[in-house]
Amino acid sequence: MLKIKDLNVSINGKKILKGFNLEVNAGEVHAIMGPNGSGKSTLASVIAGRDIFTVDSGEVTYMGKNLLDMPPDERAKEGLFLGFQYPVEIPGVSMINFMRTAINEKRKHYGLEPLTGMEFMKLMEEKKKIVEIQSKLTNRSVNEGFSGGEKKKNEIFQMAFLEPKLAILDETDSGLDIDALKVVANGVNALKKPDNASVVITHYQRLLDYIVPDFVHVLYDGRIVKSGSKELAIELEEKGYEWIKKEAGINEKAESTE
Amino acid sequence: MKELFIEIYNKNKELINANSNEYLRLLRSNAINIFKENGIPSNKTENWRHADIEKRLKHDYYFDFKSKSTSMNVEEIFKCDVYDLDTFSVTMLNGWFVYKNAPITQLEDGTIIGGLSKAIEVYPDIVEKYLGSAADMNKAGLVALNTAFLQDGLFIYVPDNVEVSKPVQIINIVNSEEKLFLQPRHLVVLGKNSKLTLVHCDHSLVHNINFSNTVSEVFVGENAMFENYKVQNIGDNSSLLTNLFIQQKNGSKVSNNALILNGGFTKNYVDVSINGKNCHADLYGLYLVDDKQFADNQVFVKHAEPESTSNQLYKGILDDMAKGVFSGKVLVNKDAQKTQAYQNNNNILLTDDAKIYTQPHLEIYADDVKCSHGATVGQLDPDALFYLHSRGLCEKTARQLLMYAFASEIVNEISIPALRETINIMVEKRLRGELSICDQCLLHCNDKETAVFNIDLNKI
For B451, what's the count of Cα atoms within 13 Å in the CB-facing half-sphere? Predict the structure, then answer.
């Protein structure tokens, strides 16, 4: 589904991703962990198509297509979803108007008629249940005045609504209390299907108690330095990132002496 | 230029003053003298620096002194269907009040609605008490000119304790083969504890060159409420100059909302004198201009008495080579302690060629007040745009949605649901580039053959 090969990304001349590789297949849940500044959010943004980053080299293939050639809205229409670490507040744009526009643009992309008002409202009600989102939130402007937890729930709600093939969740757990965390995790689990996949980016292992990953990758200094099963996440929680840094540091030294 | 107007005045003096009483004749001759003194506002003065009025005035305009207030069937003339209105609707055609049944009507509750020229005849006591007393002829551009040529306009009198249940809608129509120069004059008087909502629709049916120089005077009595909406949607060849003077007494509330949706040249001057305690004035404005259009809002609020509040919020989106001006001034007199006055002007420039000149300022002589002013000029928020893109909204849709959101803050201040809904649709259309001069505001004339006036706010 998603193949990233030797990806090098920089912003304002500063290298962030340095030879990043990842392969995600349908039905899989990947967790990407790593200390602050390792490049986790950059990875998410580049996959979604944020243009403030420069892709210096490398390939990203999504469903057989060159993802880097596609504008962000097309990526979304083709089933890619980014759950933002910091969802943007957009005063004046109602959630209802936003979601209705989004779903109908996607339907148009696939040659489908727009949803009628009735069909749309029915879909909204259905999806609201998945994330236990309160009705009042969908009546407000996008994320405006939402608490941290509400914003993250709203991301999962949008994900439920747009039914992506590949969801990238960027630190969806940050700033959540345990109840909100459960709601978010339940939402992600409920949406899991054999033909879709998700990449969960997180700093802590906590979220992975609720979303069980098939693979855990450790990102450090712009590339994956260790991959493993969910046990790796538990090890990280116990030992912290220091040993990873040491291991990676040894490798770096080894490289530089070559 | 000034001499030309004076010459027109002298030539038509008899016509202008025909059937006028002593009071009006004096008012006019006083006004022409002030105009002789002041002339056309120069672009060297601060308030006219960016408004190229000379260029707009230089056409060979036609003045209509003969029509007088007339009875006519507006529907027939324009081949239109007027649905049952949920407003009291009055029409001004080429600056003259037109009516179906009577030139002036007194409703059961005592409210008087009609043409100003008739009101002077029938209710001279009321008219003479107020007319000309708020509109300072030395203050704003062409108020003296309007007063010198004063003929007709709308007159509304709301007695004490009367709340006019339906909004009154004034439709200013310009429809002439000539290059018309019109100067409507409106007078509105609200008694104690009364309430009135006005909806002005400025509308030109023709693409011809024309110029409107409007003056309105509004007197808001103690604890009265006055709401005023201006929907300005005129052609690129039309020039619209409005001067609104409002005087407030103790406990009164005023809300003014000027919505410029289209127009070659629009300059609105709003002058509010808060002459009482516990008053409040909300002054809103929205301007959506593109091409080479020009929108200018000048606001002056004077706090003469203590413990009143005022709030100005103007927002604009400017595209192409459009030019906008906001000039807001709050004057707080020495005695106006505990005043709260706020000013804000926010703009989005969509191109490098679009321009906005914004100048919010405060002049405070009291020492115990809360005042603030601010202005922003920017582009659409790139983070918000990316957020929308990431949900599948294409560039165009995302931009439109954000522009609409920006504008909706002003639209949402409209308290009449039907009008708010209509304006919402118009704003959306405007931002999609679909609202043309022939796809009119509250009036519809999509097809020239079968022009339809749909004045019912509910039906659109």
Answer: 20
Which residue do the tokens 């003056």 mark?
A: B215
For A76, name the nearest residue in chain B, comparing CA atoms only: B392
ipTM score of the complex? 0.94
B84 C-beta neighbours (distance < 10 Å), count: 8
Per-residue pLDDT of chain A (258 residues; tens, 9 = 90+): 999 999 999 999 999 999 999 999 999 999 999 888 899 999 999 999 999 999 999 999 999 999 999 999 999 999 999 999 999 999 889 999 899 999 999 999 999 999 999 999 999 988 888 777 777 777 889 999 998 888 998 999 999 999 999 999 998 888 788 888 888 888 888 888 999 999 999 888 888 888 889 999 999 999 999 999 988 888 888 888 888 778 776 555 554 443
- Cross-chain Cβ contact B390/A72 below 8 Å: yes
| Closest-approach residue (CA) in chain B for A51 | B386
More confident residue, B309 or B68: B309
Options 3.20.20.370, 3.40.50.1820, 3.40.50.300, 1.10.150.120; CATH for A2-257 is: 3.40.50.300
Q: What are the residue ranges spanned by the domains of chain B?
A: 2-379
Question: What is the number of alpha carbons within 13 Å of residue B374 lying toward its C-beta?
Answer: 8
Domain definitions of chain A by residue range? 2-257
Indicate if the alpha-carbon torsion angle A120, A124, A126, A127 is positive or negative. Answer: positive
Using CB atoms, pick whichever of B394, B395, B401 lies closest to residue A93.
B401
